[in-house]
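hiii so um. not sure if this is the right channel but i have a protein structure encoded as tokens and i wanna go backwards to a sequence. like what aa goes where. can anyone help
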């Protein structure tokens, strides 16, 4: 989907299911992305819409921003580090 919609041109790195042996909630995909970007978990924010996204981010030492719009996996507001109701909410945290 990323290539078909042109999202891949906006990304410095992408880690897909075939790129790691383990998958979320295991932190291996997060560690691989951090390696590709040359950053540490403490300097990264992972945006996701599932509990497994949050678990993987936390296991990799990353903050987690919950993208609540369109998610079928509701979370309480106090669970993620950041709770976003709309994509533009991310701007206030930058």
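sure thing!! here u go:
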């Amino acid at each position: 989907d990323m290539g078909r919609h042109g999202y891949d041109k906006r990304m410095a790195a992408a880690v897909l299911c075939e790129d790691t042996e383990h998958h979320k909630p295991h932190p291996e995909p997060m560690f691989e992305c951090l390696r590709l970007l040359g950053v540490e978990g403490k300097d990264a924010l992972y945006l996701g819409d599932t509990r497994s996204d949050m678990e993987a981010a936390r296991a990799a030492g990353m903050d987690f921003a919950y993208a609540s719009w369109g998610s079928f996996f509701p979370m309480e507001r106090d669970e993620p580090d950041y709770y976003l109701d709309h994509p533009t909410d991310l701007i206030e945290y930058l």
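oh and The chain has a mean pLDDT of 92.
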